[in-house]
Amino acid sequence: MPPTTRKSTRGAGPASGAKQSTLSFNHRVTKPVSKAGKDTPVKPTPPTVEIPVVVVEKQQDDNSRATTPSTTAELISPITKTSLLEREKSEAELKAAKISDAAVRRYWEGIESSRRAKEVHKKHGEGLTVGEKVLRYFDVSSQYGPCIGITRLKRWKRAERLGLNPPIEVLAALIKEEERVDGQAERAHMDELMSSTAVGAV
Amino acid sequence: MVTLDEVDGLLQKSLGETPVTVERAPSIYKPLHSFALTKDRQYQQQFADIYFLRLTKIKPSVEEVASEAWEDTVVGGEKARKVERVLDVRQGELCWVAGTVYVDMPMKPNILEDVSKDRWISAPTTVDHYYSEDGRDSIMLEDDSGRIKLVGSILKDFFMVTGCIIAVMGTENANGEFEVLDLKFADLPPQPERWDLSKKPKAKDEDTEMTDSPTPGQGTKIAIASGLEFSGTDASYAVELNLLLEYLLGEALDPSTQKELCQISRLIIAGNSIATDKKAGAEDNKEKKTHKKYGYDSSSYNPVPSQLFDEFLSELLPSMPVTLLPGVLDPANASYPQQPIHAAMFPKSRGYTVMPGATEPGWLDTVTNPWEGEIEGWKVLGTGGQNLDDVFKYVDSDDRLGMMEAMCRWRCCAPTAPDTLWAYPFQEDEPFVLKECPHLYFVGCQPQFGTKVIEGPNGQVVRLIAVPSFAETKEIVLVDSETLNVSRVKISTGLGGV
């Protein structure tokens, strides 16, 4: 017999306590509306979680920059995977944004020239840009910790916080790669290989 | 009309003197929330980050100590060189390197073995000790480049557990093993001054000396108890628990003892306040159909222990502030660091806690395990016992105070996390590393009382206390807040011989 009242089906509430990413209906811009009405309060999050705090900052920015492209950018990327476009707040990132492509290429050539042996498997590196090569080199640099299970940006920031001096060119390459392919350069390539599930796997 | 004076044998007129009220000493208290985890924490990350964070944080200090010690050592005509990575060690070359210790023990619970035998265990199997008697254990040094096996007679002189950071000097022998000639730890971290975080109370001037209340910082005491283990089934120590309550409240004692007792400004309960029913396990063997609703068997839950503990607290709290650390038997999360016991467990004592998010701690302060804070100006680090019990399983020794000392000198209060001690996979910061040396380090739920004072190379002084479990020993510990001297109070009922 189907449940007579709606209340009995709500018993599953506590079991589904895990937070699921929800669609954000707060910024569905279907017609030009003044931003003041759209200022939905984001729930206060603890300061250790980086990403939601950034969304709050972004909303404060919305009051000053009432432009639709920025809101559509928010529309596309859900809160859990904000693109780096929105996070140009920290000092290191601002500095890294100033570093040119040529500087990144020079950094990479510096690394390559310090190696005694030439590149053996050139064909594997053919489809990769210099930026992606710099990032993959950063991934396997074990002095900054394991690259699995952490985004490249968080790993860079953590290395800087611990005083390991990760090269700023890596952050520049990361920002540029994020602009090129939205979201694909976020995690280490090895991370994607290790956590991918094969078709037909149990 | 008959006045009260004329009537004998009934009510007595009061003697005219107002009874002297003794006031309890106030407690100057500031908890730190170093071990608090956020509510929406992720569990997707790997545990390797913990080891990386620990090594990165402690390695500079270890290397400093090591280079100071081994800078000019010449052994057999060869000078010791520093190598950056563990794998850079060359055969026959005298060198020193720093890394994390990994102890490979066949008796350690091994998840790979369980998976291969197709046995999914829900709770970790508890073994008495992990070390094997016949020397099958091997100690290795590891860092992000690789591992190398350590041999040498000097290794037996030190406690070695997985996760401590050391620097070793020696050479690689023909078997590919590293022969250790000397070993160094990071030793005690810098110690802050007393009254680093909280404000020191001003010295009393003569006008206020008339009151009886003792001033803070002048001989006040901190009481530490653990293993109260309120139980619904085991009543062997219930009388002592009641007597403990009366002792702390100062009831049923004469005024001179009460004067001493009002010096106790705070009670810290270091774990295991609520015992699990031991009989419940035996009944599971019978295949009786348990009535399951909402996914758990409600008949196996016994609310009596937490009710008893709540009553104890609610009677004690009006008089004394309490800091409550969870232990391994308490209703808090199973992995380290344990989060504070939820206030919903204490319906009567709940009024003494503060709302979550308040800045000032409440009269009843439920805190994490391990816990850091400042009491009467002294920096205090306390745990509920799981870290020491786990280290105890690694080494063949009874010297628990020596292990506590080793943990301070390794600068890590839970080195075996996450290897054999379940821990949260920290990714940003590892809080078990001691950044500052505490003045007082206590570990609860130990089988016996023990205390020791250790000293560091830069004048650090730490008082170590192994707090005994009340259910076993019926003892609590009193710490003097000026001198950090420790005294033990045993509550016994004197029913021997019957």
TrEMBL record, chain A:
It holds the Pfam family DNA_pol_delta_4. Residues 18-27 have a biased composition (Polar residues). GO terms for molecular function: DNA-directed DNA polymerase activity. Signal peptide: none annotated. One of its GO terms (biological process) is DNA synthesis involved in DNA repair. GO terms for cellular component: delta DNA polymerase complex. It comes from the Eukaryota. Residues 1-71 are annotated as: Disordered. PANTHER family: DNA POLYMERASE DELTA SUBUNIT 4. This is DNA polymerase delta subunit 4.
Automatic annotation (TrEMBL), chain B:
Residues 46-182 form the DNA polymerase delta subunit OB-fold domain. It catalyses: DNA(n) + a 2'-deoxyribonucleoside 5'-triphosphate = DNA(n+1) + diphosphate. One of its GO terms (cellular component) is delta DNA polymerase complex. GO terms for biological process: DNA repair; lagging strand elongation. Residues 222-451 form the DNA polymerase alpha/delta/epsilon subunit B domain. It is found in: Nucleus. Belongs to the DNA polymerase delta/II small subunit family. This is DNA-directed DNA polymerase. It comes from Rhypophila decipiens. The lineage of its organism: Eukaryota, Fungi, Dikarya, Ascomycota, Pezizomycotina.
